[in-house]
Write a structure and sequence with these properties.
By secondary structure, this protein is mainly β. Strand 5 and strand 6 form a beta hairpin. The longest helix has 14 residues. The termini are far apart. 11% of the residues are buried.
């Protein structure tokens, strides 16, 4: 008997990731503080490489108090690494965002075993 139900995994289209300058003096300011990017990592999960950005966020000019955290940002799987330069002179990679919840859990575990971060965020 033929299966009447069609299941599929939601997949996002590849998107551009614009690499930030990694420099101790490169603070990106916001209304309540700033963040800096410490490093970029290419890590493996299964047979795919994913991009991981490690940074520090600091809240030091907020009306609600002060604080900070070390974080990880995962733009996605690396499709093309630093394939071109944009008009502002920044390198651009092509990534495919991670959408499967089980994979996000695996990737978070990989990152937390390697880096001291308080949160892992995905595009």
């Amino acid at each position: 008997m033929e299966n009447r139900y069609h299941y599929h995994i939601t997949r996002r289209n590849p998107t551009d990731y614009i690499h930030e300058v990694i420099d101790d003096d490169n603070e990106i300011q916001s209304i309540s503080g700033y963040y800096t990017v410490e490093k970029e990592l290419k890590l493996e999960c299964g047979e795919k490489l994913f991009l991981c950005i490690i940074g520090v966020g600091v809240v030091d000019s907020s009306c609600c108090g002060v604080g900070g955290c070390r974080y990880a940002l995962v733009p996605g799987y690396i499709i093309e690494w630093k394939e071109r330069t944009n008009s502002a002179g920044f390198m651009v990679s092509k990534v495919e965002p991670v959408v499967e919840e089980n994979t996000k859990k695996k990737i978070s575990k990989i990152i937390k075993e390697r880096e001291f971060v308080t949160q892992v965020n995905f595009w």
